[in-house]
Design goal:
Layout: H1 2-10, H2 17-24, H3 28-40, H4 43-56, H5 62-68
Helix pairs in contact: 2-3, 3-4, 4-5
C-alpha cells in the first residue's frame, strides 16, 4: 500500500524518488495520480496528491504534516 511507502520513509528508510515512483505505479489509479504529480516536477502537486491519498483513505491526518515537511522529488 502507498501508505506503507510513506511510513517507511517516515521511519528512516532511504528514500529514492525513482523507486517511490515505480512503487506507486503498481497501485492503479491512485498510484497513477501520484506518479503524474511526480512527473510534473512540482513539489506542491506531489504533496497535494499524497495528502489527497491520506484524506481519501481515512488515514491519520498527522501524516499530512510529514508529507508537507518533506521533498518528494529529490
Amino acid at each position: 500500500m502507498i501508505i506503507d511507502l510513506i511510513l517507511d520513509r517516515k521511519d528512516g528508510k532511504q528514500y529514492i524518488p525513482r523507486d517511490f515512483y515505480n512503487s506507486v505505479m503498481n497501485y492503479g489509479v491512485i498510484g497513477h495520480e501520484i506518479a503524474s504529480a511526480l512527473d510534473g516536477g512540482d513539489e506542491d502537486s506531489v504533496q497535494r496528491a499524497l495528502t489527497r491519498y491520506i484524506v481519501d483513505n481515512g488515514y491519520c491526518l498527522d501524516r499530512v504534516a510529514f508529507i508537507t515537511s518533506n521533498q518528494w522529488l529529490q
